From TrEMBL, chain A:
It comes from Kluyveromyces dobzhanskii CBS 2104. Belongs to the ubiquitin-conjugating enzyme family. It comes from the Eukaryota. Signal peptide: none annotated. This is E2 ubiquitin-conjugating enzyme. Residues 1-146 form the UBC core domain. GO terms for molecular function: ATP binding; ubiquitin conjugating enzyme activity. It holds the Pfam family UQ_con. The active site is at C84.
TrEMBL record, chain B:
Residues 153-164 have a biased composition (Polar residues). GO terms for cellular component: nucleus. Residues 867-915 form the RING-type domain. It comes from the Eukaryota. The keyword rRNA-binding does not apply. It is found in: Nucleus. This is DNA repair protein RAD5. Its main location: nucleus. Belongs to the SNF2/RAD54 helicase family. The keyword Cytoplasm does not apply. Residues 1-60, 122-164 are annotated as: Disordered. GO terms for molecular function: ATP binding; ATP-dependent activity, acting on DNA; helicase activity; hydrolase activity, acting on acid anhydrides, in phosphorus-containing anhydrides; nucleic acid binding; zinc ion binding.
């Protein structure tokens, strides 16, 4: 529903969630450029991650499509930036919104779930040697998600 | 030969007053003998002998030549010549006297003889000198110098020879060359010596055994039936090739009307042996007998209806003539250009190869018949009449002024009004299009141009009946009235009102009445126009005899019920003359209508409905409309009577009036025969006889001779029908009407899961029964069953609730009897399919209501219910609030859409808010009205009855509500039960203070209709107004230009019907762009109906031919539906 989407977009811009920005693309109002700040006390702290979000035609009956553009070392996010998150899949509900989806993504950064992995190698590492994995994630954040970096570096 | 000689073709040459021409001729001998004389050894010898014995030299020779030229060379013996010379040689006008005497004798002889070509025609081959200067006396050419190639020139001369020879003083007989056929025959008999070139041959018909003479042969071969005969020897020479023989053979039956004159073209200087080729030229002549005594086609046509035996004879004759015209390649002249004559044989050949194209083409023909022949002409030619401002308030458009002129002219009122002498001729110029104009072959043209009148350059032939005429066959219609068939939206009503206001009573009759009074009161008044008395008086006598009940002041307008009030108010708007009154006759509001309209207080206009006419027709009263003869009857939406077997149609046709008009935008709805009722109403003799109509329209059309059928219709209607379309340009090249654009878009929707479930199950049933029907071949016997199936499927597309209603308002099933309506209910899907069991008990409802009250507290004036899906706060209206079992609130649309989506994807249906499993059967609603004391109460809601279309419609309506305040919207459906549902659903889903909904369908009585339309018309910026309109009740006539948006909820079989409906808003007076949305369910019967519509549109409205074809089409349609 067009009006719903406009309504949401307006709210996203006027009343942003702390640590999250989402801006619709000029040419395509269904396409959003998103940034999420790495949550504190997580390996991603101080990182700013670029994402893209696309609202399918059936939105809000169907979940939005979200993908990381910035390289990230996370058991639930694969090399292509795809995210394994229940609300984006089976647990989607039309009562959820863009902002709630993005909050869920931010929460996923805070608490990785290696038991339901998408990036198998990362998950394995995360289970076997959690410390090395966290260090690796920090290093990646340092490398790819530095706020000074103007250009996002996709895979 | 000179022009004067050519004049001999005309009978008048031989009349006394034409003598100077003969005299001139006599003094200028321009003629010589040709080579034929050399062959005629005996006769030359005779003449030589006579000449020498007499010895009076040149003058006598000249006399012979002149005379022979008049009457034919071989026709007269030398002794006769001599005696004539003695009697008349020295007299001044001797030649003509001699000729006269000769022909008188000849006539007597001829009567005793059998009609035999070779016996009576004697040809003269004379050099045609028509190109020479007339005063060039001495240009006598030797016969040998005549070039062989000049055969064509000889036609005139031979023709002259023929004509003079065949001339009969009694019957003014003549014949005229129309063309020749060149053919190569073959000899069957050897000849002893070469037959001379140019020899006159003849045809001899041999009748095969067992076949009665005069009947056309069905057998393939004709060539053995027709023999080429050497006239001089009177022996058979050979035969003609089959293709020529086929043309010639039937013509021999009509040798007194069409004479065929074969000549030998070449003999190769040899005698013929069996099997040699014979080169023959066959000159064809029309004799005056073909033109008959009466040149008035219509009179003869009428007679032919009565005599059927003669009819078939006539048909064969027509076919034979058509074939001949084809063979000699004579082209009809149309205006300045020639065009192919319609040939029956050609058409038949084409049909098999491209039947479809043929049909489509001819549909176009019909269209062009409407658009070009008629109307464009009228825009140029017709003068404009502006009605008197003192009596008529409205301004007419230019074309309306033209139609006023035309209508007045048709009523023979125009002359009364027109101050200028400019005559507009309506009848005069329109040639009966059954007839074609032909020019006599040009070889004789030189001669004709100067001396002859224009007319005689041409002759006219009716190739359908084989009739000929020298005079232009003009259609004369004596009826007062006609058909105003302007396209919808061009203001036919106003045009008709202008006519009524301008000629509101029978002035002639009034004069008679006045005069009658005068006579009885002995010249007490001087009103009477003395110049008209005689004519008036006779007319008066006539009318008085039968018109005791003549309502000469009253025009009766018959309209569909929905238009009754519209007409009345239009009249009030247009009329300025307080003396003119308009009254509605409906529901017995006038006791004795017959007495009323004849009485002194008769209103100028009475408006009534077809229904009233029909019901009075059934009764026998002395006070009804049938007991008066009206001054004028106008049928609005005249196609109402198109089916002549209906009571309405019979009733309307039985009404009497001195002037009759039909207004219709669609004179043809389905088939050509639709026109017949109109023709019958207008009493257009002779076409109003059904036999005549069938013979010339229905049967040719069924046979696939579309051209002929259309020609006839054109002929019938041209003088009495005026049609202009919106696209036409006026004299200045401006379009007649410029309407704002019209956007019609089809919105394809998908079934919800529950709808689809029901639909698929019903589709399966329907398919099975169609398959069964097709397999057994009795598809159409079960036609009603199948219609019911289809109807059910269409209903599912609209709303599942419709299945529980009786299909009383469906047009397809109107005539179903009680038995089949039982089938209708039997065909419903299992009830469980439609309505799954509601799983919420009343106890549970009570508990839930209590909890709900705890959560939401006491009702507040502004509700705070939020939809978790669209995040709307304060869902409007309250009835749209849908509550799950877990007591979360949603908009109804959002929730049902969600449930559908999940079901379609086979995903679990959980509450979007708390993920508790929910069921569509367990959706709750707030009970309304909310009692402040008890607070919120929940009731269960069968959400699966929500129709996809209504949902889609609601989305549109909400959008309009937000963006265009005060908009007026029309929603069409053909199911009035669907309109009921729409009414309740829309009013429950749209906030009440912003939307007003009106419903207009066939169940309303007249007063209610008027009221509703009046209210709908009032503009109110504070709310949107919705008119639910039944396609059947409101599809025609209504003027709803106040609205510019329309929604068509369901498709109708015929696209024309939908166009009509759309034209309710897209017509004169519309200011805005018209937007129409047509809702169609994807992959359903509706989508297929669209295809059928497209097909119909492509074919035009005239697709159906005969009964068999219709059945075939129906089966096709049904098959298409179930593909």
């Amino acid at each position: 529903m067009q009006s719903l989407q406009t309504q949401e977009t307006e709210r996203l811009v006027s009343d942003p969630v702390p640590g999250i920005t989402a801006e619709p693309h000029d040419d395509n109002l269904r396409y959003f450029q998103v940034t999420i700040e790495g949550p504190q006390q997580s390996p991603y702290e101080n990182g700013i991650f670029q994402l893209e979000l696309f609202l399918p035609d059936d939105y809000p009956m169907e979940a939005p499509k979200v993908r990381f553009l910035t390289k990230i070392y996370h058991p639930n996010i694969d090399r292509l930036g795809r995210i394994c998150l229940d609300v984006l899949k089976n647990n989607w509900s039309p009562a959820l919104q863009i902002r709630t989806v993005l909050l869920s993504v931010q929460a996923l950064l805070a608490s990785p779930n290696p038991n339901d992995p998408l990036a198998n190698d990362v998950a394995e590492e995360w289970i076997k040697h959690e410390d090395t994995a966290i260090a690796e994630a920090k290093q990646w954040t340092e490398l790819y998600a530095k706020p000074t970096q103007s250009e996002p570096q996709p895979e | 030969m000179t022009q004067e000689q050519n004049a001999a073709e005309k009978p008048r040459f031989f009349r006394d007053e034409e003598e100077p021409i003969v005299h001139l001729q006599e003094s200028r001998p321009l003629f010589v003998q040709d080579e034929e004389d050399d062959e005629d050894v005996d006769r030359s010898g005779d003449r030589d002998a006579v000449q020498s014995s007499d010895g009076s030299g040149d003058s006598r020779e000249r006399f012979y030549e002149s005379l022979e030229d008049l009457i034919g060379k071989n026709a007269i013996s030398s002794t006769q010549l001599l005696s004539m010379w003695h009697s008349y040689g020295k007299v001044e006008n001797g030649i003509s006297i001699a000729a006269n005497e000769y022909f008188e004798k000849e006539e007597a002889l001829r009567v005793s003889k059998t009609t035999h070509n070779s016996g009576r025609t004697a040809d003269v081959e004379v050099i045609d000198l028509s190109d020479e200067e007339p005063d060039d006396d001495l240009s006598i050419l030797p016969s040998s110098s005549e070039p062989p190639a000049s055969l064509s020139n000889k036609r005139t001369s031979s023709q002259a020879g023929l004509s003079s020879n065949e001339y009969s003083a009694e019957t003014d007989q003549w014949s005229r060359f129309i063309g020749s056929i060149h053919a190569i025959g073959f000899t069957t008999r050897p000849t002893v010596k070469p037959v001379p070139v140019g020899s006159r041959l003849g045809f001899k018909k041999s009748v095969p055994k067992g076949v009665p003479a005069g009947k056309p042969l069905q057998s393939q071969h004709c060539s053995h039936l027709i023999r080429l005969v050497d006239v001089a020897q009177n022996r058979e020479l050979g035969r003609m090739p089959e293709e020529i023989a086929r043309i010639l053979y039937p013509l021999l039956n009509y040798s007194d009307e069409i004479s065929l004159q074969p000549f030998l073209l070449s003999n190769n200087d040899k005698r013929f042996s069996v099997g040699d080729d014979i080169y023959v030229r066959i000159d064809c002549y029309l004799t005056s007998r073909a033109f008959g005594k009466s040149d008035d086609g219509s009179v003869r046509n009428k007679a032919s209806v009565i005599n059927h035996a003669m009819e078939s004879h006539q048909l064969h004759r027509a076919e034979a003539i058509m074939a001949l015209f084809d063979a000699i390649n004579i082209k009809a002249v149309y205006g300045d250009t020639t065009y192919e004559i319609p040939s029956g044989t050609q058409q038949e050949n084409n049909v098999s190869s491209s039947q479809f194209q043929e049909e489509a083409l001819n549909v176009n023909q019909l269209k062009s018949f409407y658009r070009i022949t008629q109307s464009a002409e009228s825009l140029r030619k017709l003068p404009e009449t502006t009605p008197n401002e003192a009596i008529f308030k409205l301004d007419l458009r230019r074309y309306q002024k033209q139609s006023l002129s035309w209508m007045l002219k048709r009523e023979f009122e125009y002359e009364h009004l027109s101050k200028e002498a400019t005559e507009i001729s309506i009848d005069g110029n329109s040639m009966n299009p059954l007839w074609k104009k032909f020019s006599w072959p040009s070889s004789s043209k030189h001669a004709l141009v100067q001396e002859e009148e224009e007319d005689s350059k041409f002759f006219y032939a009716n190739l359908y009946t084989g009739e000929f005429s020298t005079e232009k066959p003009v259609i004369k219609t004596m009826i007062n009235g006609g058909i105003l068939a302007d396209e919808m939206g061009l203001g036919k009503t106003i045009s008709a009102l202008a006519l009524i206001c301008t000629a509101d009573y029978d002035k002639d009759y009034q004069k008679k009445v006045d005069k009658a009074k005068n006579v009885s009161v002995n010249n007490s008044s001087s009103k009477v126009d003395s110049s008209r008395t005689i004519q008036d008086f006779t007319q008066f006598n006539l009318s008085q005899q039968k018109h005791d009940n003549y309502a000469y002041k009253t025009t009766l307008i018959v309209v569909p019920m929905s238009l009754l009030n519209q007409w009345h108010s239009e009249f009030e708007k247009a009329n300025r003359d307080p003396k003119k009154r308009c009254e509605i006759y409906y529901g017995n509001n006038i006791k004795d209508i017959a007495a009323y309209v004849v009485g002194p207080n008769a209103p100028s206009v009475i408006i009534t409905t077809y229904g009233v006419i029909q019901s009075e027709y059934s009764r026998t009263t002395t006070s009804g409309v049938f007991n008066a003869i009206f001054f004028r009857i106008i049928l609005d939406e005249g196609h109402t009577i198109r089916n002549r077997s209906t009571r309405t149609s019979k009733a309307v046709i039985a009404m009497r009036s001195s002037r009759k008009w039909i207004l219709t935008g669609t004179p043809i709805i389905n088939r050509l025969d639709d026109l017949f009722s109109l023709v019958q109403f207008l009493n257009l003799e002779p076409w109003s006889h059904i036999n005549y109509w069938k013979r010339y329209v229905s049967i040719p059309f069924e046979k696939g001779q579309y051209g002929q059928a259309f020609d006839v219709i054109n002929a019938v209607l041209e003088p009495v029908l005026l049609r202009r379309t919106k696209n036409m340009k006026d004299v200045d090249g401006k379009p007649l009407v410029s309407l704002p654009p019209k956007e019609v878009c089809v919105e394809k929707l998908q079934f919800s899961t529950s709808e689809n479930r029901v639909y698929q199950s019903m589709l399966k049933d329907a398919e099975n029964s169609v398959k069964e029907g097709l397999a057994k071949g009795d598809l159409l016997r079960n036609y009603t069953n199948i219609l019911v199936h289809i109807l059910r499927l269409r209903q599912v597309c609209c709303h599942l609730d419709l299945l529980q209603k009786k299909p009383e308002d469906d047009l397809d099933l109107e005539d179903l009897d009680g038995k089949s309506s039982q089938n209708v209910s039997a065909m419903l899907p299992a009830r469980s399919l439609i309505s799954p069991k509601n799983s919420i008990s009343q106890d549970k409802l009570n508990t839930l209501s209590a909890t709900f009250r705890e959560i939401h507290g006491t009702p507040t004036p502004v509700n705070t219910f939020e939809c978790a899906i669209c995040t709307t706060e304060g869902i409007e209206p309250l009835s749209a609030v849908s509550i799950t079992e877990c007591l979360h609130t949603f908009c109804e649309l959002c929730l049902t859409e969600y449930i559908d989506f999940q079901q379609k994807k086979n995903l679990p249906v959980n509450c979007p808010y708390c993920r508790e499993p929910i069921s569509e059967a367990c959706i709750l609603k707030l009970k309304e009205p909310i009692e402040p004391k008890t607070g919120y109460e929940l009731i269960s809601f069968d959400s699966h009855f929500q129709s996809t279309k209504i949902k889609a419609l609601l989305i549109h309506l909400k959008q309009i509500q937000e963006t265009i305040p005060g908009e007026q919207i029309i929603i069409f459906s053909q199911f009035s039960s669907f309109l009921d549902i729409l009414q309740s659903e829309l009013s429950s889903h749209l906030s009440r203070n912003q939307v007003v909904i009106y419903k207009f369908d066939g169940r309303l009585d007249m007063r209610e209709r008027a009221k509703i339309l009046e209210r709908f018309h009032e503009k109110d910026l504070s709310c949107i107004k919705i008119l639910l309109l039944s396609l059947k009740a409101g599809g025609v006539g209504l003027n709803l230009t106040c609205a510019s948006r329309a929604f068509m909820m369901d498709p109708w079989w015929s696209p024309g019907m939908e166009d009509q409906a759309i034209d309710r808003i897209h017509r004169i007076g519309q200011q805005k762009t018209v937007k129409v949305v047509r809702f169609i369910i994807e992959n359903s019967v509706e989508e297929k109906m669209l295809k059928i519509q497209e097909k119909k549109r492509m074919l035009g409205d005239v697709v159906e031919g005969d009964e068999a074809e219709k059945r075939h089409k129906r089966i096709e349609e049904i098959q298409m539906l179930f593909q």
